[in-house]
Amino acid sequence: MEPMSKNVLVLADVREGELRNVSLESLAAAIKVADGGTVTAAVFGSKGKDLVEKLAHHGADRVLLVPNEQLDTYTTDAYFQAFKQVIEKVEPDVIFTGHTAIGRDVSPRIAARLNLGLVSDCTDVELKDGKILLTRPIYAGKAFVKKAFRDGIVFATLRPNNIPALEADTGRSAEVEELDVQIAPDSLRTLIKDVVRKASEGVDLSEARVVVSGGRGVKSAEGFKPLQELADLLGGAVGASRGACDADYCDYALQIGQTGKVVTPDLYIACGISGAIQHLAGMSNSKVIVAINKDPEANIFSVADYGIVGDLFEVVPMLTEEFKKVLAEG
């Protein structure tokens, strides 16, 4: 039987100086499989010191700061070099990253260079008889497989909103160490001159606990307004089907599906979405699905926990008013 305790490394996913929730979820998975071993969180960028306390409260025994300013904004080459040096420093038995834009890009490169196996987009992690079992969806979410490594470093990316983060323990502290990584300037094929972002407010779609999505049935960009109102009321985010994006009702950044974002919220409300297989691949693992569609034969009802046959422009405002009453009652 393999030694039970393991040295686990988590690459913290940082956006604009803030930790993404998937980093805390990765720490919860790390504690589960460490089984008494050490959990190390690596933080890239010059603002890492501000995140030490939160990482410690959520399970990190050790925080490795990599305060290189070249890592403040993600580039493939810089992160690859830094991550490789962190792995060589920590010598982990297990590596977890979030299945985010950063994790999806840098992890395969690291795995290829270091000749490691990689299991991506995992929705569950468990420890059984000393073996780490990783669950991931296949066939666009229609089935799940469990995988285990025969030997070597266990390396996986974890899908957001699937492994619950631990409650913060304010009594915990972490050992802090800085690592001066060497990034050769002439090896960087990309130089970030400036970052221009579309103005956006509210919850990150990929980490939202509530998602209200619209399809072609919203009929126009104006049709998304009642969906946005409902999402704001519930502290959630607005998403869309590819059909709505193709029709120019909304930006492609909102697209959910096989060629868009994959979300796993606690509540997914599909409004005017027919339920094409490509869209279902991006949301069918949501914990509770509510479908609103005028067509009782729409495929979306096949995956819905609750279905409402009706006009979304009548149903959504009614839902919003009812939620307001419930929230007002406390």
From TrEMBL:
<dbReference type="InterPro" id="IPR014731">
    <property type="entry name" value="ETF_asu_C"/>
</dbReference>
<feature type="domain" description="Electron transfer flavoprotein alpha/beta-subunit N-terminal">
    <location>
        <begin position="8"/>
        <end position="195"/>
    </location>
</feature>
<comment type="similarity">
    <text>Belongs to the ETF alpha-subunit/FixB family.</text>
</comment>
<dbReference type="InterPro" id="IPR018206">
    <property type="entry name" value="ETF_asu_C_CS"/>
</dbReference>
<dbReference type="Pfam" id="PF00766">
    <property type="entry name" value="ETF_alpha"/>
</dbReference>
<dbReference type="InterPro" id="IPR029035">
    <property type="entry name" value="DHS-like_NAD/FAD-binding_dom"/>
</dbReference>
<dbReference type="Pfam" id="PF01012">
    <property type="entry name" value="ETF"/>
</dbReference>
<keyword id="KW-0813">Transport</keyword>
<keyword id="KW-0274">FAD</keyword>
<dbReference type="InterPro" id="IPR014730">
    <property type="entry name" value="ETF_a/b_N"/>
</dbReference>
<protein>
    <submittedName>
        <fullName>Electron transfer flavoprotein subunit alpha</fullName>
    </submittedName>
</protein>
<keyword id="KW-0285">Flavoprotein</keyword>
<dbReference type="InterPro" id="IPR033947">
    <property type="entry name" value="ETF_alpha_N"/>
</dbReference>
<dbReference type="InterPro" id="IPR001308">
    <property type="entry name" value="ETF_a/FixB"/>
</dbReference>
<keyword id="KW-0249">Electron transport</keyword>
<dbReference type="InterPro" id="IPR014729">
    <property type="entry name" value="Rossmann-like_a/b/a_fold"/>
</dbReference>
